[in-house]
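Translate structure to sequence.
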């Protein structure tokens, strides 16, 4: 399961490093560059619950195998992106397919791991699981940097040997594959896909269309209305895609709120840190990978401690302390970005990564522990839908903030140094989503101005990240439950007779 899921983690970071090369060689637009990353995240989040449901109905092992195969084929197609006008649409489409493959395999993979261990050992087991996958994720920035120097296509092809190893290990280990036949809520799946897609489309394209554009608000409002329709449908259908009544359990709701806020900054961090490292620090793609590695060192080490805290004392200490550490880490990092010195920033990066690592596993496992063994895939689908939708929202909102701040900071810095206004505006508009923000033409003063202005713009983004994690700390400090959870508590609170309901549907 680690090898299967590793591909999904690697792909959340490896592509961010290669964005400048992709744009240069394929002529992808700035908005298209964000969609190459966010299309994957959005597909993953929108289809996660559907994938979790299929895992329960058709067998978890079956869904892991299907997901791995789909993911590997889509990765190969991404690597085969043709040049020309079709390149942008081709790459975004197969990134969406990649996300669909990940949505099929991930909830079933986590459910298999959780079902293998008793409740009092799951914290350590999931800490190992997320620690190893987090460690493998660190390969993303490093491998992405070096592979990009050879060819950007290799960042997608690297998934193929990982997929082959995963399939061999699945064949040898033969994880459980019990099927629990039930109806599948296709209408709910369509509604949630449209709702998430429209909301993220409106937020992300606001930087292009503008907040005064009717298209921006039409997407956001229509997405919100569709989300309300989804909730109403799920509450009245016999066998829903997401058993939303589980959110009646306050503790389960707090778990998911914490995961949403954490994910708002976790995955987007890699994109914005990569842009900062390559533009402001002048690092190469491989050196930018090393910059991101500091975050993972903190993440992997503290993830192990978080798992042990969960087994001994419950999730609260790890989640509360972790969110506080992340808030402080991002705040200190935001203050030090304009120094343009990795040496001055590394301890802040370690602190932020450690905070996220400390809370991620305990919050995720605590939520899953609230479901009976027959519903692990379903509940994992809920939590991961929340996580990945949070990441999509974070990338869209923070991307808009960065583009706006770049236009202000970079544009002003260049104009004061004699760069014509149209040229200054063009450079500023490119930096927020690519890492190719140099002025060139031998204008060293203007180049330094771009680097420093971009650092100030990115600092604003990291300040927002710190504020989000501070809100997460306040939420968990005030509402997070004490002690260890009893298995199935949330589902019993949400629906008194879930098994009877399933029996009626079949």
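Result:
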């Amino acid at each position: 399961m680690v090898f299967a899921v590793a591909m999904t983690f690697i792909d959340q970071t490896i592509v961010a490093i290669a964005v400048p090369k992709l744009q240069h060689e394929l002529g992808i637009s700035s908005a298209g560059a964000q969609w190459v990353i966010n299309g994957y995240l959005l597909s993953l989040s929108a289809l996660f619950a559907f994938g979790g449901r299929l895992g329960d109905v058709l067998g978890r092992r079956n869904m892991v195998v299907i997901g791995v195969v789909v993911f590997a084929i889509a990765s190969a197609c991404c690597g085969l992106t043709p040049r020309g006008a079709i390149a942008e649409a081709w790459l975004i489409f197969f990134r969406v397919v990649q996300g669909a493959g990940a949505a099929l395999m991930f909830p079933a993979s986590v459910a298999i791991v959780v079902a293998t261990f008793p409740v009092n050992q799951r914290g350590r087991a999931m800490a190992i699981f997320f620690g190893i996958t987090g460690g493998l994720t660190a390969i993303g920035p490093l491998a992405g940097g070096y592979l990009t120097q050879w060819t950007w296509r290799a960042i997608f092809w690297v998934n193929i040997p990982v997929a082959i190893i995963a399939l061999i290990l699945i064949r040898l280990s033969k994880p459980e594959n019990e099927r629990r036949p039930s109806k599948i809520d296709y209408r709910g799946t369509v509604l949630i896909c449209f709702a998430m897609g429209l909301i993220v489309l409106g937020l992300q394209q606001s930087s292009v269309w503008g907040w005064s554009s009717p298209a921006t608000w039409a997407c956001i409002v229509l997405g919100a209305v569709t989300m309300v329709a989804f909730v109403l449908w799920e509450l009245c259908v016999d066998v829903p895609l997401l058993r939303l009544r589980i959110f009646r359990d306050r503790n389960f709701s707090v778990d998911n709120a914490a995961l949403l806020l954490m994910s708002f900054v976790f995955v987007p961090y890699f994109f914005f840190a990569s842009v900062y490292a390559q533009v402001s620090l002048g690092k190469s793609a491989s050196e930018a990978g090393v910059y991101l590695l500091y975050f993972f060192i903190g993440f992997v080490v503290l993830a192990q401690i978080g798992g042990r805290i969960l087994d001994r004392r419950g999730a609260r200490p790890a989640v509360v302390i972790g969110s506080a550490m992340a808030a402080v880490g991002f705040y200190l990092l935001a203050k030090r970005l304009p120094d343009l010195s990795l040496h001055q920033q590394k301890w802040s990066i370690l602190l932020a990564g450690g905070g996220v690592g400390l809370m991620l596993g305990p919050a995720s496992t605590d939520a899953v522990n609230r479901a009976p063994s027959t519903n692990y895939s379903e509940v994992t689908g809920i939590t991961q839908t929340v996580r990945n939708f949070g990441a999509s929202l974070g990338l869209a909102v923070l991307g808009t903030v960065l583009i706006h701040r770049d236009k202000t900071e970079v544009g002003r810095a260049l104009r004061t140094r004699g760069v014509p206004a149209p040229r200054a505006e063009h450079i500023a508009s490119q930096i927020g989503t690519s890492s190719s923000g140099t002025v060139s033409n031998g204008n060293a003063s203007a180049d330094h101005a771009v680097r420093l202005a971009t650092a100030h713009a990115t600092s604003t983004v990291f300040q927002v990240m710190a504020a989000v994690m501070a809100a997460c700390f306040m939420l968990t400090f005030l509402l997070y439950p004490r002690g260890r959870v009893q298995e199935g508590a949330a589902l019993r609170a949400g629906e008194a007779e879930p098994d009877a309901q399933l029996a009626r549907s079949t």
